[in-house]
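Memo to structure team: turn this sequence into structure tokens by end of day. - J.P.
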Amino acid sequence: MTTWEYKTVIVERTGSKEDFSFNWAYGPWETRVDATKAPLLVSLGDLGRDGWELAGVLPTDLWDEGGGRGGSSGVRAIASLLLFKRPVGG
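Reply from structure team:
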């Protein structure tokens, strides 16, 4: 039977409100491991080379876009927890 080890990584993007409008501008997705931030695709490549595979995604910071004046409607995720696994030993 395979034994697994697990790792969690936070992925997030920051945003700022443009002027006095209802529009938000978001930056690129970044991972946060300890106090170190890195672009998402760089981190995924590094994790893959180290044998980690993505096992699940849990959105952790959601915004309800109510669709008020000039706004969009729906739900927007700006942070998630990524769960990775890899076999132990072998």
